Amino acid sequence: AAPPDLPVPVALSTPPGLPCCLGCARSCSAWPVAPSSHSSPLPVPAAALSPFAATRRIGHPYQNRTPPKRKKPRTSFSRVQICELEKRFHRQKYLASAERATLAKALKMTDAQVKTWFQNRRTKWRRQTAEEREAERQQANRLMLHLQQEAFQKSLSQPLPQDPLCMHNSSLYALQNLQPWAEDNKVTSVSGVA
Fold first, then answer.
1. Is the pTM of this model over 0.85?
2. DSSP label at residue 185
3. CB 113 within 8 Å of CB 104
4. What GO cellular component entries does it have (predicted)?
5. pLDDT for 66-90, tens place per residue?
6. How many Å apart are CA 13 and CA 32, to the nearest integer?
């Protein structure tokens, strides 16, 4: 049996100075190019050679999407219902399914409404407690800084206890009593030194 007909490789001829094929970085100086080892074995469509050739989309990209579902209107609960839900939440942050069903029946609400309310209320509770903890942390930091400043001011105003070793050595005595931050020990600049 004879082999099936295969497409015949065609060498593309390119202008001088351009690569002769997509996989070849060499520039061909000969025009037209004779089939060689580096020329493209298969014909390349003109659109693939042009960097600006792109398929154009027709229509808006979101045009084929399914239309969005309409939101359900917000459910509003009575003050009595909210008050009972809040009381229960204060005692218990999580409800078992049986407890939830009982509470929903007592408040004339659906099980899903009670479940959603508790989920939303827990989210709010977590956010509030996180904000409170952050405020407490900042207040503690401010108090700590204030106490540190007070302690530093006291240390400046109180004289240092005399070290017996420094009492007998005049250089050590001078170093111990040196307080560069004290107002009376400011160094005055000497001007007009010859």
1. no
2. G
3. yes
4. nucleus
5. 777 888 888 889 999 999 999 999 9
6. 5
